[in-house]
Amino acid sequence: MSFDRHWEEIERLMAADHAERAMNLKPARRHHGVTARRVAGVLLLATVLVAVLWLFTHEGCAHPVGNTVAAIHVFLVAPFTVLHWIETA
Question: What DSSP string describes 4-66?
Fold first, then answer.
């Protein structure tokens, strides 16, 4: 068999296989496992809760730098992270 005939046979088989696969396509299943976004959301929620608790304790009042970091996280970082997730979902 010449190279050209061999190549034509390969192309024919590939086209038939592609058509068969296209006929049998099923919609993609959603993955129900733990996703990275879900883990990140839980971690973000935990850090926000810790920062809010820090802001409302006596220790938070005694350390203005810690208060500033906690407030920046709660009022800037966390909301903008959630907005980014909503925009890219």
Answer: HHHHHHHHHHHHHHHHHHHHT--PPPPP-S--HHHHHHHHHHHHHHHHHHHHTSHHHHH-HHH
Yes or no: say if 81 and 48 are a contact pair by the CB < 8 Å rule.
no
**Total structural domains within the chain:** 1
Please give the mean pLDDT across all residues of the chain: 81
Domain region containing 70: 3-88
CA distance 72 to 58: 18
Per DSSP, 2 falls in state -
pLDDT digits (tens, 9 = 90+) for 34-56: 688 888 899 999 999 999 998 88
Query: What type of residue is 8?
Result: E
